[in-house]
Amino acid sequence: MLRGAGRQGYGGEIGTPGFKSFQNFLSNSASLVSNLTPDENGRVECTFDAHKYSTIVVLAMDDNSVTQSTIDIPSSIEEIEKRDLSLSTPLNAEKYYNEMRNTEILKKSDTHVIEDITSTDYIMVDSLEKVNQVQTEIAKAAGNNLPTTFEFLKTWDKLDEEKKNQKYSQFMCHEVNLFLYFKDRAYFDKVVSPFVTNKMEKTFIDLWLLGDEQEVAKFKAIDSFHQLNSLEK
């Protein structure tokens, strides 16, 4: 397998050669030539437009072994095709700028105007599937994997009552109770609220879900407030 290291770069294991993946200044993305078979003399020949690249990675393997070699292409950096990433309209050097990332919650009838659409990247999260996708990507960026325990909530509105009761019995917890409070209030009032009401020991979330303002207010005391987690606070 031959791979020319371009914009997409090449990532190796620990102890092997590697190239930075952030190489957007290069005009050509990495090129891959694979599944090459040696001739009777053990030689492999292929056509490869090498002048576009500075490095070739050769990876050879059979059923028993694997070997890799990195080859520098004798061309100066000036000859490699590059992209012009300079700003077409430079920012005012007399001002200060910072990049901001905001989230805004809009109800169905609300409107929002993006003042400068040319310099704004935005995404609309308007379904439970998209919420799950965003949470999954955020978890990946943090080096974690999002648990799949609550995948059934994405299709909660399509479940019949028997299936809902089965899922709630299996996965009942504060997270599910909060979800149902906001997303299926009829089911919450019919099933969840009576269950929470009959709990002998109620937590802050239980009291809040039941609308017990008098008991919730007790958590304003400093010693009680510090025992709450970030969501509860």
3D structure, described in words:
Helix 3 packs antiparallel against helix 4. It is elongated, with a radius of gyration of 29 Å. It contains 7 helices and 4 strands; from the N terminus they run E-E-E-E-H-H-H-H-H-H-H. It has 233 residues and is of the alpha+beta class. The chain has a 4-stranded antiparallel beta sheet with strand order 2-1-3-4, with no helix packed on it. The protein folds into 2 domains: 82 residues, no CATH class; 109 residues, no CATH class. About 5% of the residues have low confidence.
- What string, H for helix and E for strand, traces the elements in order? EEEEHHHHHHH
Mean pLDDT figure? 83
End-to-end C-alpha gap: 56 Å
Q: Give the strand content.
A: 5-15%
Number of strands: 4
How can the largest sheet be summarized? 4 strands, antiparallel
Number of structural domains: 2
Unreliable stretches (pLDDT < 50, length at least 5) are 8-19
Number of helices: 7
> Helical proportion?
25-40%
Spatial sequence of strands, sheet with the most strands: 2-1-3-4
Coarse morphology: elongated
Compute the CA-based radius of gyration: 29 Å
